[in-house]
Design brief:
- The protein is of the alpha/beta class.
- Helices cover 43% and strands 14% of the residues.
- It has 18 helices and eleven strands.
- α2 runs parallel beside α3.
- The protein starts with 30 loop residues before the first strand and ends with a helix.
- The relative contact order is 0.13.
Amino acid sequence: MAQAFRASAGAASRSGTESAPTPAADRAQPLRMSVLGATGSIGASTLDLAQRHPDRFDVVALTAQSNVEKLAELAILHRAKVAVIGEEARYGALKALLSGTGIRAAAGSAAIEAAAREPADCIMAAIVGAAGLRPTFAAAEQGGRVALANKECLVSAGEIFLRHIGASGAELLPVDSEHSAAFQAIGRTAARSIEKIILTASGGPFRTFDRERLARVTPDEALRHPNWSMGAKVSIDSATLMNKGLELIEAFHLFPVGAHQLEAIVHPQSVVHCLVMLEDGSVMAQMSQPDMRTPIALALSWPERIATPVSRLDLVALKSLSFEAPDHDRFPALKIATEALHRGGSAPAVLNAANEVAVTAFLERRIGFLDIATTVAACLEKAEARGLVNGVDTLDDVLAIDEEARRMARNLLPG
């Protein structure tokens, strides 16, 4: 069973008890906010909202991995206190760009972790991949709000991360649109009343393609998502439906349900983000335009709401909403991820690591689109045979499994 969801909205625990919402932030005191992964799509949307509400947010620290020009531009625009670039070789460039601004510059992975520990009320954890694990764990140590957009904390280290959250007293709010939707749909519902949580998937750009056509798709085609504007890694995961599998694993850790109570369905319009089925026959759903600024705004402002520039739904103009079952033959990644969820232990960590390697290889045109899922499945099989999916106890254990799984996945790739 997954651990209880820890958030200020009073989401139900497994025993059915509820926690009271945290009082709204004092309007006279802006929310001190840091953004880990400021130059990515989530970071950009977060800072767009901050710029629209300058009286509500005070930017403390911004980090990026390599885009030093954009990081410096954002740090100056938002008057950040600290700016950190992951690639140490770019420190000189960052320092020069920030010269005379009063903004502290730093570089390297240790400096990113230090930025996560800068005193702040809310930290947007938006670093993509396993690289975001240590900084997000560091962010939680403050005991404030962690707006979680890094999947790996829950996919690769779910139980460990939630124990860390519990020990620090931090407040965890999900940023993924589907988990934000589930959070809102569940509200103060007791855990015993939840029958099923259903996450929706757009189906990606290849929803109607047969396997022959899927075998010929290019990275450029896969990056053109029909509904969402996302980074390269998430766009490819959406195209393979692996993203939905990873989100099912996240949901298992976030909400008071078992793996058998989680499901994914395809919803091409991406308007309904999650459905929660209750024991009395009711189905609660959250709807909004496919724009990440809606769930980001909720994570930043809860239990209040803030205005966003997101266009409003016009259901009459939409005319209809459609749903269909996912095709596991054409999109096996979802089934592979679901099996890893049910296998438990460190299987999800192996899944995530192998998928990152395979997606990178696809983007580099070293393997085909269908080879992504094949590589992940083969890596999981090898890891199982070697006893690497039996569980982990610490973050260091997770990172060791991640490193070994990446090595195995790379060895599976063509020369």
